[in-house]
C-alpha cells in the first residue's frame, strides 16, 4: 500500500514537471499561429462544456476523456496534423496543461493556451457547439 502511494506521488510529480515545461501562449499569439497555418487549436473540455459555453471559433473539439482513453478522435487528428504545433485550451488551463505535457512527452510541439474565458475576454471569436460529437 505504501509503495502504491509512493508511486502515485512520484507519477504526479513527474506529470507536474512535464506540465511546467510546456510553454504557455496567450490567445492573440495562438490565434496568429493558427491563422498562419502553423498550428491547430484544440478545446479539450468535455462535450457538455462545449454546449454550455461555446468554443473558440477556430478550435477543434477533442475531449480529454478521449485523449485519456481510446483516442478515437485524437489519434486521427494528430496524424492529420503531424508537424503542426498543437495548442490546447480547456476551462482554466489545467487539463490543457496535462494534455500538452503528454503530447510533448511524445515529441509533439505543443503549448497551453489556458482557459476558454481568456479567449473570450481577449475578443477572440467564439461559436456555439453541440454536446453531441
CATH class identity: Alpha Beta
Helix content: 40-55%
Distance between the termini: 40 Å
Oligomer: single chain
Under CATH, the topology can be stated as Oxidized Rhodanese, domain 1
Report what the structure shows:
Helices cover 50% and strands 18% of the residues. With 133 residues, the protein is an alpha/beta fold. The protein has one domain (2-127): Rhodanese-like domain (Oxidized Rhodanese, domain 1). The N and C termini lie far apart (40 Å). Residues 16-20 have low confidence and may be disordered.
Summarize it.
50% of the residues lie in helices and 18% in strands. The chain is of the alpha/beta class. Strand 4 (85-90), helix 6 and strand 5 form a beta-alpha-beta unit.
Helices, strands, pairings?
Layout: H1 2-21, H2 27-35, E1 39-43, H3 47-53, E2 55-56, E3 59-61, H4 64-68, H5 74-80, E4 85-90, H6 94-105, E5 110-115, H7 116-121, E6 126-127
Parallel strand pairs: 1-3, 1-4, 4-5
Antiparallel strand pairs: 2-6
Amino acid at each position: 500500500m505504501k509503495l502504491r502511494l509512493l508511486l502515485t506521488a512520484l507519477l504526479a510529480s513527474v506529470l507536474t514537471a512535464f506540465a511546467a515545461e510546456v510553454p504557455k501562449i496567450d490567445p492573440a499569439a495562438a490565434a496568429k499561429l493558427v491563422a498562419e497555418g502553423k498550428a491547430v487549436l484544440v478545446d479539450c473540455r468535455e462535450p457538455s462544456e462545449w454546449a454550455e459555453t461555446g468554443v473558440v471559433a477556430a478550435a477543434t473539439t477533442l475531449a480529454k476523456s478521449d485523449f485519456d482513453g481510446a483516442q478515437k478522435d485524437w489519434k486521427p487528428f494528430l496524424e492529420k496534423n503531424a508537424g503542426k504545433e498543437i495548442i490546447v485550451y480547456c476551462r482554466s488551463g489545467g487539463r490543457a496543461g496535462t494534455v500538452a505535457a503528454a503530447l510533448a512527452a511524445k515529441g509533439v510541439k505543443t503549448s497551453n493556451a489556458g482557459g476558454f474565458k481568456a479567449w473570450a475576454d481577449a475578443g477572440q471569436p467564439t461559436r456555439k457547439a453541440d454536446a453531441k460529437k
